[in-house]
Amino acid sequence: MSVNRWYPDTCVGVPCTFRLVRGTTDLEAIEGLCVHHMVIHQALLTDQAVFDAVKARNSVKNVATAEAARLMGLEHANVPWRVAADDKIVVTTDPARVATSQARNKIEALTGAGTVVLEEATIMPVAV
Amino acid sequence: MVVSSSDAATGAEGSLFGGLVSVATEANTQSQATEAATFSILRARDQAGGLGTRTIQFRKGGANGNLVVSRGDAGTMEDITNTDVLSSADLYNLAFTDAIAGNPFYTYITVVVEFASGHGCFHGSSTFTGIIFDVASATRFVAINGDFAADGATTEANVATRNRAYTSWEAMQVRVTANARNNDSTFVNRIGLADGTGLITVATTQTGLFTDTAIGDAVADGDLLDVSLTLGTGVQDLTLSLVAATPKGSSKCDVVAASQVGVARTASATAHYVQLGGSFTSFNTTGTNQRTPAGFEGVASNVRCYITANTLTGTATLKLIKNGVAVITVNITAGAANQWFENTADSVTFVDGDTLCYEVDEGTSGSATFHMFAVTLDAAPVEEVRRQHPVISHQAIARAASW
Lengths: 128, 403
Hints:
The structure holds 2 protein chains of 2 kinds. By secondary structure, chain A is an alpha+beta fold. Chain A is built from 2 helices and 6 strands. Chain A has helices spanning 47-72, 100-111; strands spanning 2-8, 17-22, 27-34, 81-83, 89-93, 116-120. A 3-stranded antiparallel sheet of chain A has the order 1-2-3, with helices on one face. In chain A, strand 2 and strand 3 form a beta hairpin. In chain A, helix 1 (47-72) packs antiparallel against helix 2. Chain B has one helix at residues 5-10, and strands at residues 12-14, 31-32, 37-46, 54-60, 63-71, 75-86, 91-98, 106-115, 119-120, 123-133, 139-142, 161-162, 166-179, 185-191, 194-202, 208-212, 217-218, 224-230, 238-249, 252-275, 278-279, 292-293, 298-310, 316-322, 325-332, 339-350, 355-378, 388-393. In chain B, the strands form 5 sheets. In chain B, strands 20, 21, 22, 23, 24, 25, 26 and 27 form an 8-stranded mixed sheet that branches. In chain B, strands 9, 10, 13, 16, 17 and 19 form a 6-stranded antiparallel sheet that branches. The longest helix of chain B is centred in the N-terminal third of the chain and has 6 residues, at 5-10. The two termini of chain B are 13 Å apart. The relative contact order of chain B is 0.19. Classes of the chains: A alpha+beta, B mainly beta. At the A-B interface, strand 1, strand 2 and helix 1 of A face strand 10, strand 13, strand 15 and strand 16 of B. Strand 1 (2-8) of chain A pairs antiparallel with strand 16 of chain B.
């Protein structure tokens, strides 16, 4: 059995905290340690409901940024994203690398319409 | 990494671990204090200067802490007045601000950490721009000091630190910044090249900080310590920015400068220098900027290094340098590869304000590839009960990624 804590990067400010208890292979218990302070979670009644919502939102961000990276020929981690004031996930795409309409169609095909906001900006190459 | 002028103007985020980079997203640089602890004595050295006033601000839970240093020219900056008290699970990192667009050149950043209970230190390796792991059905290895490179190390010994300070491994944490994996990825703490009981599972497409704070594995003198990462089937990217560990012991701490890929040094009569801890990417021939203040007083011992390739035709020497003078010497045998070289006999006292760094010289001809330099610092012989230990980083933010 292992006990982990997960602090999702899509929860801003003081991040939500989940205590995850795993058996040999399965997630056996979920305890929300700090989950109801965010507006988008306050209407959810159980830790499981918050976890499911946060996990889905976290995955949407990662699927969207992965697809944006593929479309723009960038490494996944180099696609800028942020959580807007209204709690929406905003992913930055570079119109010089991919047409915004194309990016929107591709990403919405994976995440559903309206789940991710795209904003245009010039993404500077990252030199290491 | 290149920090653009806009990044410099608006502030970039970094950490006490790893080196060479800062990023614009603060969350990617945050580590967790897995123990309640007090941070004090923040020091850094900018060897470049010429960028107006540069500021390094300690951040606690995404807000400014008390520790802050700034300087308008090249040299050492320090805050020996303020402290920041962190509760268990608080997040911390550093924020950088430059008055003039450009890239300062920090050869080290140090802070002293004192646990609220017992003795120990936070160790971590990081590359905050994110490093991709995508080898299907494979286990790779990552150090708990310095930096890590793409896909980690296939040879565990190249990244495993030889323990001389600790008796237990209490906690482990990893930060995943991007994740396109279609199955779980698992991290395990490694002790003596075998699995410990620490286990972190990162589920498919999850990102953020993951911790295991209830490990409690015993570690012995001489044990090799690192972390393994096992990926399942598929070649989707898992991007990692931090691997950190919290070992505890009596009164000692290990301070390690590390490079996963190793840095080759050609034999030379010219001395080469490395700062006391953090990430190292090259050797410096001057050494002035590598002299690192420890932040407390104690006894230094067990000076050591790990070498892989070694074609040296003569004996090289590793020296611990205190205030510019060699005080402990380790002989590196010609041609002896894939092993630690260590002086287990000699020690030297130091006080706060003394500087320490490593020097390598000689070797006749050929070259050797260095992965780790380490020293053990013990506060107990000087002061009866001390819990202060330094966390040291090389955080070069520069257009040329070498110094």
